[in-house]
Amino acid sequence: MKMEHGKKEKRCKSWLQRLAGFTTLVAGFTLLCGLGAILSSPPAVAANSPLLGVIRWDCFSNSTCADLNSLGPQQYHDRVPYFLSIDSSTQVSGNENSQSTIDQQIQYAYDTGIDYWAFVSGPDTSPNVAEAYALHKYLASDYKEDLDFSVIIHRYNAQQSWSQRVDQMVEWFEEPTYVKVLGDRPLVYIFNVADMESYYGSGTPTQTNIDLLRQKTVAAGLGDPYIVAMHWQLNTAVSQLNKYGLDAIGRYGYSGLNGSQDMNNPSPFSALAQAQADSWDDYANSGKPFVPDISTGWDKSPRTTTPPPWGGGGGPYYRQPTPGEIAGHFKAGMDYTRNHTTAVEANTVLAFAWNEVCEGGWLVPTHAQGTERLDAIKAMLNGVGVNALRNPGFEADMDGVQSPKSWSTWGGSSGTHANADYTESSGYSWSWRLTHNKSAAYEVATHQTVTGLTNGLYTLTAWVQSSGGQTTAQMSVKDYGGAEVIRNITTSSTWQQIQLQHVPVTNGQAKIVFYSNAGANQWIRVDDVSFFKETY
Q1: Measured between alpha carbons, how far is 294 from 348 in angstroms, rounded to an integer?
Q2: Which of 495, 393, 520 is nearest to 34 (CA)?
Q3: CA–CA separation, 476 and 241 (whole Å)
Q4: pLDDT digits 0-9 by tens, 417-459
Q5: How many whole angstroms separate alpha carbon 364 and alpha carbon 358?
Q6: Which residues of the chain have pLDDT under 50?
Q7: 316 preceded by cis ω (within 30°)?
Q8: In DSSP terms, which residues pair with 433 in a beta bridge?
Q9: Where is this region: Disordered (predicted)?
Q10: Distance CA 336, CA 349 (A)
């Protein structure tokens, strides 16, 4: 059972044991990237830390893959989840509905420090349909003890009666990993009580259904469910709570107040984050307990360009946030919860979302960003600075290319060796890595300058391999306000992590460089580079 104060004791198990088991499961697919050894264990969480919940809305099974069409156009391939395939400039394919894929995602969430997934749960008529398949795979997972769960009640139909649905929910509540708040109360969200009213009838019929959920749960020896009314409008949520004796109010997603209606000229994410943070006070001032919502973005342009059967496109539109912006907004929401323990009595926040990629809110790793967003949240939870580099895992091009995105190439003193700098498959993690190599002697450098840094001490890390034999093979930091600092890359046929610590940035910027002066067919390989401010 998840308690509202701190993480479960089971999270103290040997991380090496967990990682070894998971590595076997996915045949060598390596989870750890970005922040390297400093983040190679689950986040250390302070006592009374709010529970971090993240919404899952699951639609990527073979029988319910409508969003695949919306992700088809190339301009949306930057948000395609890693478990899907990008087949062409107009087509995406794939199926999330496998045990290994959900197992893998559980470990991503656990490694980040997420406490629970809130599964959007419709009528459960088949284990393979939308809003059902991922929860079934979660419940069958050998790794579910690493991540708790709750449900968001959504949709109603005659194929599963309400009484049957309540019986099923009570079975879920009895799971050791179901989220409990305020002692022993199962945490339940209702997505817009008006939908329940529309199907069953307003007033007495809906009240009877809610009462039945409470009665059967208590009869099973569990606590009274803690029911949160979700609605986009604060006044409506308060009205639903008052009408049916619910326990708290909340929100599923947030589109802001004055976002751009022009898909080609979106508003900055900072405008969305600030408006959402301001709204937390409005919810607190309602006098009703509430669960703060945290956004990872809002941009439904894929559904505007290629609508699914249910529609749902249109503005407002916001630019996709950087990983650092997401982490900063998460921190603001969790800090707000720590400081408003009466208004947020359940001590939890709920983030939009794990996989709402077509609505613009996601944390699930993607082909373009890998685990950058999760890395940033994990860094925040650990009190470690966020990676300042862009495309640190060389995944952004989604292909083998010369001169990877966000990095620049120096072709040596002769200017003729730029083609010795390229990405290729089989990285330390994910699909791609940086390689320096050529069939003739060469000199080349791959570099990225980061600006806007807060002055202070920084650490640079990378995972590397080397054939050895080069005149020079090195990683360095320069142009930071002091003399260049260098770490040699030594011979190794296996991946090893190297680092430069305590780099004293004094001018708000730094240039990260990988340099080779080598003979024919002498090579280095680089992956998962990180440059972050030391906060310990």
Answers
A1: 11
A2: 393
A3: 58
A4: 999 999 999 998 767 899 999 999 999 999 999 998 999 999 9
A5: 12
A6: 1-41
A7: yes
A8: 424
A9: 291-314
A10: 10
Asked whether 27 and 326 are in contact (CB, 8 A), the reply is: no
Question: 391 CB contacts (<8 Å, ≥6 apart)?
Answer: 404, 405, 406, 407
Structure tokens at 121: 């749960």
Cα separations in angstroms, 93 against 60, 96, 230: 9, 10, 32
- What amino acid is encoded at 459 in this protein? T
Cβ density class 175-186: b for 16+ within 10 Å, e for less: eebbbbbeeebb
Asked if residues 467 and 522 have their Cβ atoms less than 8 Å apart, the reply is: yes
What DSSP element (H or E) covers 499?
strand 492-505
For residues 31 and 49, give the distance between their C-alpha atoms in angstroms, rounded to a whole number. 25
Beta bridge partners of 477: 485, 512
- Tell me how far CA of residue 357 lies from CA of 102, 276, 335, 353, in angstroms: 17, 19, 26, 8
- The separation between CA 417 and the C-alpha centre of its own chain, rounded to angstroms, equals 38
Question: Is the alpha carbon torsion for 10, 16, 17, 23 positive or negative?
Answer: positive
Contact in structure between 296 and 361 (CB atoms under 8 Å): yes
| Of the candidates 401, 417, 415, 403, the residue with the CA atom closest to the CA atom of residue 518 | 417
Q: Cα separations (Å) of 200 from 153, 154, 211, 249? A: 14, 13, 14, 21
Question: Are the C-beta atoms of residues 161 and 125 closer than 8 Å to each other?
Answer: no
Task: Tell me the sheet residues that pair with 178.
Answer: 149
43 within 8 A of 330, measured Cβ to Cβ: no
pLDDT in tens, 223-236: 999 999 999 999 99
Nearest to residue 413, comparing CAs of 447, 384, 442, 393? 442
Give the list of residues 6+ apart from residue 232 with CB closer than 8 angstroms, or none.
251, 252, 253, 254, 255
Nearest to 243 by CA among 278, 274, 197: 197
d(CA 102, CA 156): 25
CB neighbours of 235 closer than 8 A, spacing ≥ 6?
none
Alpha carbon separation from 322 to 121, 133, 156, 372, 376 (Å, rounded): 30, 30, 37, 9, 9
Q: Reduce the secondary structure of 515-531 to three states and give it as a string.
A: EEEECCCCCEEEEEEEE
**Residue 208 φ then ψ, to 5°:** -60, -40
Tokens of 156: 């109603």
Cβ atoms within 10 Å, residue 268: 14
- The separation between CA 405 and the C-alpha centre of its own chain, rounded to angstroms, equals 22
> For residue 6, which of 54, 53, 51 has the smallest C-alpha distance?
51
Please answer whether residues 420 and 437 qualify as being in contact, where contact means their C-beta atoms are separated by less than 8 angstroms.
yes
Burial class (CB in 10 A: 0-12, 13-18, 19+), 486: middle
Residue 28 burial (CB count, 10 A): 7
- pTM of structure: 0.76
CB-facing half-sphere around the CA of 111: CA atoms within 13 A? 31
pLDDT of residue 138: 98
Q: Report the half-sphere exposure of 137 (CA within 13 A, side-chain side).
A: 21
